[in-house]
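Internal ticket - ligand job 467, magnesium ion:
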Amino acid sequence: MHNVLIIDDEPVQAGILGEILAHEGFDVTTHTQPEQALALAQRQSFDLVICDLKMPGMDGVQLLQQLRKIHPDLTVIIMTAYGTIETAVNAMRHGAFDYVTKPFSKEELLITVQRAMKHLELRRENVYLREELGLRAAAATLIGRSDSMQRIYRVIAKVAQDDKATVLIQGETGTGKELVARLIHQMSPRRDEPFIAVNCAAIPEGTMESEFFGHEKGAFTGATSAKAGRFELADRGTLFLDEVAELNAEIQGKLLRVLQTREFERLGGTRTHRVDVRIIAATNKPLHDEVRAGRFREDLFYRLNIVPITLPPLRERREDIPLLADFFLTKFHSEGKRRVTLSPDAVDLLTQYDYPGNVRELENLLERAVILSDGSVITPHELHIHPVDAQPTEPESAAPTPPLPHGSLSEISRQAVEEAEKQAILDALRSTAWNRVKAAKMLHIDYKTLRLKIRRYGLLPHRESTP
Ligand SMILES: Nc1ncnc2c1ncn2[C@@H]1O[C@H](COP(=O)(O)OP(=O)(O)OP(=O)(O)O)[C@@H](O)[C@H]1O
Ligand SMILES: [Mg+2]
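stdout (structure tokens):
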């Protein structure tokens, strides 16, 4: 049950509000004296505070400032009788989540409260995810000793400290762009604020604007309630625009404006929202080529390309391959898989292969090898790679080894693969608090496929205790 603190110097008004929210299932505390409410907030924590802007003794903004000193994450809704943009915006600047203008209807109030609770949930989910990732980050996330990676570490360390600078991360698929984006956020002063990722390629065309900037109730057919966009959710944190080259011309224009002013309106809304976000964009299409081809706005490119980071493909830093291989084998072992090592020949083969899928491909093929290998030492044959440009270290048969040997697997191996798949799905679900959309993204499979697999493996949150 969520608890709410209502502060209004009008006892009748406070009482009505209290009743409405108690009816909605909130645990309600009301106060008519701001000073007393503040003293209470010092002893007890609240999920939500709703307070009047104009009160004798201490006004709402002062109270808000005091409250947020005690609980920096506190979600506060302000009630204002004035309805001018200035007072409300001033409250928002001081960290209010939202405001309602008196007189308001019960419905208006509830919509705002529901959104605030949704925001709180997302924030908590995000904290949970961040802890998960933090653990992984502690395991020295970004592996690489090559000169090119050393240079990148230095840029990351510097740009993390400047928490406003926009970063553009470029590199082929699987080179670690998202990893770098998360690392920058974690190393920055914004680390306790949200990291919101948007995959620009995955947003359906017609919903882009609403996804980014949110919408008001009734902004379009089907907009039955107001919704905050990604920019609002990322306020004070980092917004990661993944696959940014995929944005259409219209959104490119809107984005440019927001990058210049950090201000926007929700779809169908008139209120101007101001946000403090750091933007990190990523793309595996060289963005300057997209500009030259007329598909990406040049002015937007320059806005994004303030601090460029280009991740080299794995084949251009082969000295990192044995290091990464070691890292992944240790990681798999820590996740409960068998402890295996690579034979010297296998290391040679790995080092010669070209990896069109870069680090992700290396990780995947090692995981497969660990599952399918029989002994504790992986031989070149068990890697199931067929390097086109590299000389195979063993004479291979005429037929090339297929990269994904599912068809030829024995029943036992098939079971092993399924077991691994089930485990990977379970891990993803757990680390996203059973958010299937996020888990699917994490696993690089689509939502439908994930749903099918969840059903097939009979995975349920309450079966957690017997995995
Ligand atoms: N230097 C590295 N050290 C350790 N792990 C890495 C490194 N680079 C990438 N990885 C791992 O490889 C996988 C792919 O990385 P990531 O998702 O960041 O790639 P990407 O560049 O965003 O790929 P795409 O363009 O396909 O989205 C992840 O599991 C990531 O943890
Ligand atoms: Mg990515």
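Auto-summary: The two ends are 29 Å apart (CA to CA). Residues 22 and 408 are 62 Å apart (CA to CA).
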